[in-house]
Write a structure and sequence with these properties.
This protein is an all-alpha fold. The protein has two helices and no strands. The mean pLDDT is about 95.
Amino acid sequence: MGLGDKIKNQADKLAGQAQEAFGKVTGNEKVEAEGEARQVKAEAAQAADAVKDKAAEVGHQVQDKANDLLNGDK
């Protein structure tokens, strides 16, 4: 994925950590839980981006290998 998406996901994760900490300090369980949920959502988005990046990389490798075979290269 794009660098902007990666930065946004990391920023969301950090914001979730801050929100969770704020909830703990203030004794607000709802805010704490929202912060935890925000972190989980950001981590899931990061994992999805990693899968997409790896799939694109494998696709390029397969395409390169197919081109090599078609061109008679080994």
